[in-house]
Design brief:
alpha/beta, TIM Barrel, nine-stranded parallel β-sheet
Length: 301
């Protein structure tokens, strides 16, 4: 029996990251070929310029592999009002490309993760005093709303926000505050189960609490033992990723069956994007993607 939830993967599972990290990741033809061969039906765009930015060529590349384009990640240092105009322009350019090649895509808006030294150093163990003040929160939320409004008005593309470790929206309290400060008609939530977990939250609890805001879903696992070791060693975000904190689905602590049951109960009809964040050249992306896809088949997806 077919299910309305469809399964995709993303270039970050092959080490293609929007973050400034050293190393060489595979080119997009290999990533898309392997994604399709592993049994996925869709992809996100990856870093701007990783895939073709000409709509006709991008459509051809996707069609050759029977893949659909779903979304694109746009990082903006929203706490700084001086970044909002540049963020708006980048989001609009990205949204125009998505609108030309995709059905009902999303801009996945995020903080400029990995750019703040304190947040990067303490990812996975953030304390309240390392967070934003009231004025910065107002600036942050206003920037998210304004960018989402501009994207929707000009392109018809909707925006979701992605809480992310090493950014200023990571912990359960920060996610709650962000959702409370932004317009629920303009900004949805990209539920990322792995970042939620490493950030000190519970993915199932967030799914239940924020179900009205969940428009897009990333299934990422988080290895409890590696997360604990990274915290105890004082590892920064990138070192935690290098250690393998984001593991193959089913190898960590995320209750995917519970989250999926909750998504089905709320009649979620979007995509689930499998992500296993790795650094360039790290891991076994194709084999891992196959095993994660098989894990989801066992859950009925």
């Amino acid at each position: 029996m077919s299910h309305p939830i469809r399964i995709a993967n993303a270039p970050c599972s092959w080490g293609v990251l929007e973050l400034a990290v050293a190393g060489k990741s595979p080119e997009y033809p290999q990533v898309l070929d392997e994604m399709a061969s592993a049994g996925y039906e869709g992809t996100e765009l990856g870093d701007w310029g990783f895939m073709p930015t000409d709509p006709e060529r991008l459509r051809e590349e996707l069609a050759q592999r029977k893949l659909e384009m779903l979304a694109a990640f746009v990082p903006v240092a929203l706490r700084d009002a001086s970044t909002h105009e540049d963020g708006r322009m980048r989001a609009l350019a990205t949204a125009r490309l998505l609108a030309a090649v995709a059905k009902s895509p999303f801009i996945v808006l995020a903080d400029d993760n990995g750019a703040d030294e304190t947040r990067t150093k303490h990812a996975g163990r953030i304390t309240p005093e390392q967070g934003l003040g009231d004025d910065a929160w107002r600036t942050f939320a206003r920037g998210a709303d304004d960018i989402a409004r501009a994207v929707l008005d000009e392109t018809g593309v909707r925006t979701v926000f992605h809480p992310h470790c090493a950014g200023f929206v990571e912990t359960p309290g920060e996610i709650e505050r962000f959702l409370g400060a932004t317009d629920p008609k303009l900004v949805g939530l990209c539920l990322d189960t792995g970042h939620t977990t490493f950030g000190g939250g519970d993915a199932l609890a967030l799914t239940k609490k924020a179900n009205g805001r969940i428009w897009h879903v990333h299934f990422k696992d988080c290895h409890a033992g590696i997360a604990k070791a990274a915290r105890e060693a004082g590892a920064d975000y990138f070192e935690a990723v290098r250690l393998g904190v984001f593991c193959e689905l089913g190898q960590g602590e995320v209750d995917f069956r519970g989250v999926l049951d909750e998504l089905r109960a709320m009649e979620y009809r979007g995509w689930i994007v499998v992500e296993q964040d790795v650094l360039p050249g790290m891991g076994t992306p194709l084999d891992s993607a196959k095993r994660s896809r098989e894990f989801l088949r066992d859950l009925g997806l």
